[in-house]
Amino acid sequence: MMDRNPATRGGFFASPRTLAFVAAASLGLATAAAAQPVRVGLIGPFTGGSADFGNSVRYGAELAVKEINEVGGYLGRKLELVVRDDKADPETGLKAAQDLVLREKVDFTIGFCNTGVAMKSLDVFQANRNLLMVPCSQGTAVTTKFPAAQSYVFRVAPPDATNAKFLVSEIVDRRKLRSVAIFADETGYGSGGLNDLQSELAKRGLAAKYVARFPLGVASLAAQMRAAKEARVDAIVAYTVGPEQAVAVKSRQEAGLAAPFFAPWPLSFRSVLEAAGPAALEGTMMVQTIVHDTLNERRASFLARYSRHAGEPRIGSLMSAAQSYDAVHLMLRAVFIARSTQGDALKKALESMENPYQGVVTTYVRPFTPDDHEAFSENMLFLGVWKKGQIEYFYPEDAKRAGYVRRKER
């Protein structure tokens, strides 16, 4: 029997133009343009210390909404972003979440970059069955606070448990380095990352050789780096946000510590390059879902469109921008499948996407199930490296396979 659903027809998700016009025609909605907009909540740190990747989320979401609206929106209904700045502050974030869900009555929400801010607000979305798609925050607890079968929280970003597994596999299994130093800030993000790393090391019968904890805003970690050097560590993992990543790499350079430096994705932020400089960053490595790659046609097109929209000479965080863009399109697909913007219908639609969606970051092949609300698995990650002020693939074979369909492991 012919598939008459425009959202699922064919092997890949149809373009917004195809969806908007084919679906409108098939349902006979000639007057849909007069309908109320689909209201999309957007929440993130658009000012303050996390603004570099927060605004990348914002620009990515804005670009997706702009392009969707240019071709008719959802059955003639425009998408409307309702934006709130959480300033990377948990209390501000909670008030913003309550405002979006309870007062603005948004249909669904794209949001959160900081794990501590997200954790403070999750109950608002869960209690009101308002679907939350997280494009940025990677704290493991964000999608494990509620059992997936009952949860309205989904994520298009790799969780820290997966990042830790990837990093320890790279350091211990692949490179055979066993004396690991962990530098973790005192936030929920740093604590969660530390726990995930220690858990992965313990699975291999290892413990961290040296652990340093520090508050946000620390001016120097040179003393801690010298202590790690005295402990004869052969690898460093820094679990913290952008400004403190810059402090860590500069302090490592000051201490003359030659051990290779690894980190999750905040090391890739533009603000880290600006604060630390290319010399301090040279050769340091980080987990990535996407690397600036103009050989990939879809990615190159996105980069050009994003640059025109944002007016930025250099993206604050490519991962944040691309994951946010993909998050909006995945939600649009869910709306088409569900033919509804109600939370229960969207949840069911996301959990049952059978056909692939070709996004900017990757091709999403059944990204979610009723028991799994994470879009990424370890095999979908890359090791990036800073080289002369640019992020490249560490392994040449990764550059070759970057355009392949990376199916999620289950």
List keywords for this structure.
alpha/beta; Rossmann fold; five-stranded parallel beta sheet; 2 domains; 410 residues; seven-stranded mixed beta sheet
What does it look like?
The protein is α/β, with parallel strands linked by helices and about 400 residues long. It has 2 domains: about 15-160 and about 295-375, 3-Layer(aba) Sandwich (Rossmann fold), CATH 3.40.50.2300; about 160-290 and about 385-400, 3-Layer(aba) Sandwich (Rossmann fold). The chain has 14 helices and 14 strands. The protein has helices at about 15-25, 50-70, 90-105, 115-125, 160-175, 190-205, 220-230, 240-255, 270-275, 280, 295-310, 320-340, 345-350, 395-400, and strands at about 40-45, 80-85, 110, 130-135, 155, 180-185, 210-215, 235-240, 260-265, 285-290, 355-360, 365, 380-385, 390-395. The protein has a 7-stranded mixed β-sheet, with helices on both faces. It has a 5-stranded parallel β-sheet with strand order 2-1-3-4-5. Helix 8 (about 240-255) links the parallel strand 8 (about 235-240) and strand 9 (about 260-265). Helix 2 packs across helix 11 and helix 5 (about 160-175) crosses helix 6. It is globular, with a radius of gyration of 21 Å. The two termini are about 30 Å apart. InterPro entries: BCAA_transport, Leu-bd, Leu_Ile_Val-bd, Peripla_BP_I.
